[in-house]
Each structure stands twice: as C-alpha cells, then as structure tokens.
Amino acid sequence: MATIYVIRHGQASFGADDYDNLSDTGRLQATRLGEYLRDVGVRLDAAYCGQLRRQRDTAELALAFQPAAVPLEVDARLDEVRNDEQIRELLPRLLDGDPALRAVVDRGLSSSKDYQKVIAAVFNHWVSPQCDAAGIQSWQDYGGAVRAALRDIMLTQGSGRTIAVFTSGGTIATLVAHVLGAADADIYQFYEPVFNCSVTQLFYSGDRVSLSYFNDCSFLRLLGQQNGESLVTYR
C-alpha cells in the first residue's frame, strides 16, 4: 500500500494583477503545512506539482521542512482548470439564457463569491455534453490528462511510497471524482469546497486507488488557533 497526499496550493492573490502568486497568508499556510507534516512524521519519498507558480511555491515552502531533500517533479497535467479561458469563451453563451447569472456579471465580479458563481456556471457547462466550444482545452482532454498523471505517478513510484502532489482545486476535484467513479455532472461538488492548502489522501496498490479522506484543513484550524493566525481560506 502506498499513499498520495493531494494538496491544494496556498491562498493566491485574488484581485491582484497577477493571481498566480501566493499571498502572505498563502505562504504562511504552506509553511504551517510543512511544519505539520514534519511534526506528525510524514516522510515523503517524492513530490509533484503543476507548472503554476502558486503550486510550485507551495511545494517548495512545505518540502523545506522535510528531514531530507525530496525530489520535486513538475508535470503540466497537474495545472489548474483554465478558468480565464473558459470564462472568455463560454460565459457569453450562458448569459442570454440566465438573467441571474447576468446580474452577477453586471456587478463586476469584484467579490470572490460572485466570481465563484460564474466559475460554477461555466465549469458545469464545460463538462456537459452540450459544450461544443472549439479553440479551448476540452473537458475530455483535461480530464484524461489528469487521470493519466495519476496513473503515471502510481506506476513510476510503485508500492510502499509516500508522495505529495501539489495542485489546484479543479484538479483535485477531477481526481476525487475519478477515484469515486462520480459522473461528470457531479464533479463541481468536489471543486467548490476545497480549502487552500487542504490535504486529500489517496491509497493505492498496483492500479487500484481509493480515497481515504478529502479536503482536510483541521491542522490549519489547530495551528492557527495556537499561533493566533487566520489560516482557513477558500480564495
């Protein structure tokens, strides 16, 4: 039996010119994650992350607390869903038939809650059979790549290993839905609630993989309370 800890990146910089940077809170979350893994005796044999800066920086901050150097491999298949691309191409198609969604967009998407409503609408359309948009990454290509990345990690690392995968909410949701055999229409329910720097644990043996737990941030609550820090965030 081997273990994969699937970890969402720390809080990024919502509303900034460059979202793909960890905020001060995000860097602190990643640091506390590293301390937690060290203190509970999780010794990693290998780690993976996507190409995004927020994913790699989270990995490097957390891995710095391991007792020995952990090789970190960058795999583009672990990147996040391309939200900006989907909003640009798919949102205009959805607005005419959804006055409530149009009202949200007309407010300017300056709040994270409004932005999340748009993500929900666009993502659910993207994974549906009704989505026929050309010129953007398809759900079939993205989902297939994420599943292949998991399969390759399992095959490469083999049995008895402890591995960390630093990625993003959409990728985590896709992996969890795949492991549970959930339908495409149900994937978003695993996407929306993912906390920054939360941990999802998978077990695998051979080509069989199972979910141990999902989206745990209890260590952030505990360490935040102990240190007088506010560490639990969605965005």
Automatic annotation (TrEMBL):
CDD domains (UniProt xref): HP_PGM_like
Top-level taxon: Bacteria
Nucleotide-binding in keyword set: no
Signal peptide limits: none
Listed InterPro entries: His_Pase_superF_clade-1, His_PPase_superfam, Mito_Ser/Thr_phosphatase
Molecular functions (GO terms): hydrolase activity
Pfam family, one: His_Phos_1
Keywords: Hydrolase
Protein name (Swiss-Prot/TrEMBL): Broad specificity phosphatase PhoE
Biological source species: Chromatocurvus halotolerans
